[in-house]
Amino acid sequence: MLYNNFIIYIICLNTPGLTLKTNFGNYTMFNSFSSNDACQLLANGAQLVDVRSSNEFAQGALPNAINLPLQSIMTADRIIDRNKAVILYCVTGIRSSTAKNYLIQMGYKNVNDLGSFKNYNCE
């Protein structure tokens, strides 16, 4: 009878783009955005946004990237244009995924998560 008080979720780890629906909103769990997708968007004027800390950014970043640390995500309107596509990245993809969810909640429409900077291979 104790099972009636619990909700059990099963998450398939191999499902790209899996979205978890919660009382607090929808959160994308896994990324299906590819490096080729990023290259195409960048060729069309997308903004490449590095959500690592300022110190990490100063040590090196992808070409033409804008630094918007995850800790400062609520100031996004001062730094990025919400009318252009946004491509987010960090080291592992955890911060970029979190940043994507915040930006979507803030009303940004075209937000993409590249994940790790290692996924970048545009020329």
Give me the count of strands.
6
- For this structure, the CATH topology is Oxidized Rhodanese, domain 1
Helical percent range?
Answer: 10-25%
CATH superfamily: Rhodanese-like domain
- The coarse silhouette is globular
Mean pLDDT: 83
CATH uppermost class: Alpha Beta
Largest sheet: 4 strands, parallel
- Residue share in β-strands: 15-25%
Alpha carbon gyration radius:
16 Å
What's the gist of this structure?
By secondary structure, the chain is of the alpha/beta class.
Note down, in words, how this protein is organized.
Residues 42-114 form the Rhodanese domain. This is Rhodanese family protein. Pfam families: Rhodanese (PF00581). By secondary structure, the chain is an alpha/beta fold. It has a single domain (31-119), classed as Oxidized Rhodanese, domain 1 (3-Layer(aba) Sandwich), CATH 3.40.250. It contains 4 helices and 6 strands; from the N terminus they run E-E-H-E-H-E-H-E-H-E. The strands form 2 sheets. A 4-stranded parallel sheet has the order 4-3-5-6, sandwiched between helices. Strands 1-2 form a two-stranded antiparallel ribbon. The protein is globular and about 30 Å long. The termini are far apart. Residues 1-24 have low confidence and may be disordered.
